[in-house]
Amino acid sequence: MADAVLFEFLHTEMVAELWAQDPDPDPGPGVSAGPGGGGGGGWGGQKMSLSVLEGMGFRVGQAMAERLPRETLAFREELDVLKFLCKDLWVAVFQKQMDSLRTNHQGTYVLQDNSFPLLIRMSSGLQYLEEAPKFLAFTCGILRGALSTLGIKSLVTASVAALPACKFQVVIQRC
């Protein structure tokens, strides 16, 4: 339990620190961070902060996957890897399993968490919906990093329609 609280506080501080580096309140043209537009930094600063968070998550995901037992790394199919992420990896990071995994069997997977731990504290009001993307970038990186270590190149994005639920879309990059 203490690990989860420490992780949540650390994650919150990482997000706050990155957004504090670019205090420009003008979201700039083309920003869409949820209903009603952006906020929380200029266009360039916001994209840079999301990229930094995603990069940090990528390195953490790689490190987590590298520490897996060798028999775990012997997945036969992509779907098995995604199931592993939804169960074992998610439990290791968030002390719960992902709520659902869907696929179109053409390289696109949707992972849904109906009570995403990093969004629970802000789920008391719709005004926080536009702030949600910056709390998902690190986790997108964790997923992409773990997949990379397991030999799967991917693009991972996240979306939030209603707090604290979120969806992570994983698109496998074919060579």
TrEMBL record:
May play a role in vesicular transport during the biogenesis of melanosomes. InterPro entries: NO_sig/Golgi_transp_ligand-bd (IPR024096), TRAPP_component (IPR007194), TRAPPC6/Trs33 (IPR037992). It is found in: Endoplasmic reticulum; Golgi apparatus, cis-Golgi network. It holds the Pfam family TRAPP. It comes from the Eukaryota. Part of the multisubunit transport protein particle (TRAPP) complex. Heterodimer with TRAPPC3. The heterodimer TRAPPC3-TRAPPC6A interacts with TRAPPC2L. Interacts with TRAPPC2L. GO terms for cellular component: cis-Golgi network; endoplasmic reticulum; trans-Golgi network; TRAPP complex. Residues 31-41 have a biased composition (Gly residues). Keywords: Endoplasmic reticulum, ER-Golgi transport, Golgi apparatus, Phosphoprotein, Transport. Belongs to the TRAPP small subunits family. BET3 subfamily. This is Trafficking protein particle complex subunit 6A. One of its GO terms (biological process) is endoplasmic reticulum to Golgi vesicle-mediated transport. The keyword Isomerase does not apply. Residues 20-41 are annotated as: Disordered.
